[in-house]
Design goal:
A hairpin with a 2-residue loop joins β9 (207-212) and β10. This protein has 262 residues and is an alpha/beta fold. It has a domain at 9-90 and 154-244: P-loop containing nucleotide triphosphate hydrolases (Rossmann fold), CATH 3.40.50. The strands form two sheets. It has a six-stranded mixed β-sheet, with helices on both faces. Strands 2-1-4-5 form a four-stranded antiparallel β-sheet. The chain starts with 8 loop residues before the first strand and ends in an 18-residue tail after the last helix. It has nine helices and ten strands. Helix content is 33%, strand content 23%. The longest helix has 16 residues, at 171-186. Bound molecules: adenosine-5'-triphosphate (ATP). Adenosine-5'-triphosphate (ATP) binds next to β2 and α1.
């Protein structure tokens, strides 16, 4: 399969252990191109570890994964196709917002004319134009977050991994963020979206995966996850999430509703 036809993400038995702790256990999943995949799970479920493996920052203990057809063990083949917004975006206090984005574009070898146009339009979209020539050390948390997101998608990667993209944003900026994610997905970018803010996932995700104690315990589109398996009755995504991730030591991997994970 050529990279152009390959799914955005495919994992097979992906596992990461840290000593006695199994952070991610036998994760097998497929994310289609151009979709928003909501990646949910309680604190410590293994979401960040999964994203760090898929972005080549951490090596799996076992299993395999491909991002647009490229094995994650081959960092050079994967990185041109991905963007990553981690919890703490890698930005430099001593640069201005605009300089930071120009620097990020340079690392990606973007042609200057194209990148400066894109930087301007993203700065405008996120209401950062007025502050673009101030040093980042004077930015608020939300302003830093905006710069982090812009630099994750500036090179129009095939897959953007976004960890809590609306963190620290005021309601208007959070709205802009959600609209931007929807626009990017319309342009066939795949968004791998990890957040605890369930209405954001409910609004944007085509598919949701729920991780619990390192295992994928439920997967499906939002409506499927929200409908009670036994009665078909609808509930909120929050109710579904709480039910799926409640501690059931006797049957730890049996979600009570929603499509079971593959
Ligand atoms: N570098 C590490 N060394 C040891 N244990 C780790 C390391 N990174 C993660 N873990 C452990 O792996 C498990 C999964 O952590 P991870 O950060 O992936 O969870 P998460 O789902 O992203 O949580 P949160 O929602 O709180 O950010 C946790 O038990 C954590 O303590």
């Amino acid at each position: 399969m050529s990279p152009a036809d390959a799914p955005a993400i495919e994992t097979d038995g992906l596992t990461k252990r840290y000593g006695e702790t199994t952070a991610v256990s036998d994760l097998t999943m497929t994310v289609d191109r151009g979709t928003v995949y909501g990646f949910l799970g309680p604190n410590g479920a293994g979401k960040t570890t999964t994203m760090r493996m898929l972005t080549t920052l951490v090596r799996p203990t076992a299993g395999t994964a491909r991002v647009v057809g490229n094995p994650i063990t081959d960092r050079e083949s994967v990185t041109p196709h991905i963007g990553y917004l981690p919890e703490e975006p890698p930005i430099y206090d001593e640069l201005t917002g605009r300089e930071q984005l120009e620097y990020a574009a340079g690392l990606r070898d973007l042609p200057e004319a194209e990148s400066s146009e894109r930087i301007e339009s993203m700065l405008e979209r996120f209401d950062l134009l007025e502050d673009a020539d101030r040093r980042i050390e004077g930015y608020s948390k939300g302003m830093r977050q905006k710069v982090g997101v812009i630099q994750a998608v500036l090179h129009e990667p095939a897959v953007a991994f976004l960890d809590e993209p609306t963190s620290g944003l005021d309601p208007r900026a959070a709205r802009t963020m959600r609209d931007t994610i929807a626009d990017l997905a319309d342009q066939r970018m795949t968004i791998f979206l990890s957040t605890h803010i369930l209405p954001v996932v409910d609004e944007l995700a085509d598919e949701i995966g729920v991780l619990h104690d390192g295992e994928l315990v439920a997967q499906g589109d939002p409506e499927t996850l929200k409908s009670r398996a036994e009665t078909g009755e609808a509930r909120s995504l929050e109710d579904a999430f709480l039910e799926i991730t409640q501690e059931t030591p006797e049957q730890p991997s049996e979600p009570s509703a929603g499509a079971p994970a593959e």
